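Q: Give me the 3D complex with nicotinamide-adenine-dinucleotide.
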Amino acid sequence: MKIDNYIDGVFIKPSSGEYLDNIDPSTGKIYGQIPKSNYKDVADAIQSAKKAFSLWSKLTSADRSNHLMRVADRIEQRLEELALAESKDNGKPLKVARTVDIPRAVDNFRFFASAILHENSEIHDVGDNGFNYTLRRPVGVVACISPWNLPLYLFTWKIAPALAAGNTVVAKPSEITPATAFLLSTILDEVNFPKGVLNIIHGTGLEVGEPLVSHPDVPIISFTGGTVTGERINKIAASSFKKISLELGGKNPNVIFSDCDFEQMIKTTLKSSFSNQGQICLCGSRIIVEKSIYDRFLISFIAKTKKLRIGPPSDPTTQIGAIVSADHKEKILSYIKLAESEGGKIECGGESVVVDGDNSGGYYISPTIITGLDMNCRTNQEEIFGPVVTVMPFDSEDEALELANNSKYGLASTIWTNDLKKAHRVANNIYTGIVWVNSWLVRDLRTPFGGVKNSGVGREGGFESLQFFTEPKNIYIDLK
Ligand code: NAD
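A: Here is the predicted complex, encoded as structure tokens.
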């Protein structure tokens, strides 16, 4: 599979003429080539988006909505092909790509295509003297940059609201998982999406991402990825006063009280620990359990984790697929070694796994549970972003909160209890942008999504996204 950039409605080779290898993590073999684009390609894409802005931004909401709905419909029609591509590119079980990633990309387009049909503008009345009315105008050319863990899902989560709000976009998927972003450009082509409105450029963060966010004709950036990258982009944006939304890393706590529904909690904790090989920013990686059920929890959690089936992503029985890349696999294994050196006990997993046959060169790690660590150690403070969790006991509600909040991150948390007042109290005092009580990853696209502290700046979702992707303009009319 050799893919190309999509600029001004045309598939274009990178100006360098060079390509990067794309590796299938389930086999470790090269299976495709992606453009090694650079600042010249970025400049062309921005130029095309700038040219398209005057037409696209002046379309009625209904017309923009129709264009976006056509993209959603076509993604849905090509769901199976997109799911296969996502699973091969990322290593995630095909079942997950088919039931989570690609359907969510459809929802992202439909949600924002319909949201713009239900917007109100504001009026601040000053009686007989006059009134203020506030218009919301698109900002211009948006840079949308996304990571590899939920490739099309997160790519479209930015692109759809940016376009719906009337902006044009230059979007860069992760160089590690470019396949479905390329397939999206073929969909734009099929549905005759207006040229230049959405440009998709492939390449590395330094050669494509950085020139994109630094460009003077890009006044607004929407970024999802690691905290270190986010910090770098934030510095670039600050010096030229760009609008910025950053969705960054996490080290999410699961707080489990003894009065919870044990079976439901264990079932969900298994998912919140190891779904997508633990490579979801919302996965709970620090599990804090009330001492009175700590032993029972560990026995049950370890037994169920050991039964998870590690295997090739295409196998319908696989529950744990491949880690996204060889580098990332090494990073995760190095954290498991670190945990041991910090005094942690590996209760299960902790190893590289070789899957039989064609997949023997793939990147697999057994789901890992670690106990015996202090909350201040590096294993508990740094994001691992793999199938690795730590478990720690607590005595009191205050201690649970202290442990949960002992992190530089603040993306999401889960609380498990059947005591209504305690649930509200803890939810109120836990410092994360998202809290799930007796559940995990229940998403409603209308709600604010994002984190506090080093987990990010700003919120995505619903009208939060539409507000971010527009600038308010207040106009006063004097009636005196
Ligand atoms: P990353 O920061 O390495 O890369 C993300 C994207 O940024 C990629 O497209 C990359 O090419 C690009 N990039 C890299 N350097 C850049 C630069 N200097 N300028 C501009 N762009 C640059 O992150 P990753 O490894 O792809 O993704 C994993 C991280 O993403 C984890 O930390 C995870 O927690 C985070 N994440 C956060 C959320 C959220 O909603 N908060 C969701 C998913 C993933």
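A quick observation: Residues 145-149, 154, 172, 174-175, 204-206, 209-210, 213, 224-226, 229, 232-233, 247-250, 281, 383, 385, 411, 451, 455-456 surround nicotinamide-adenine-dinucleotide (CB under 6 Å).
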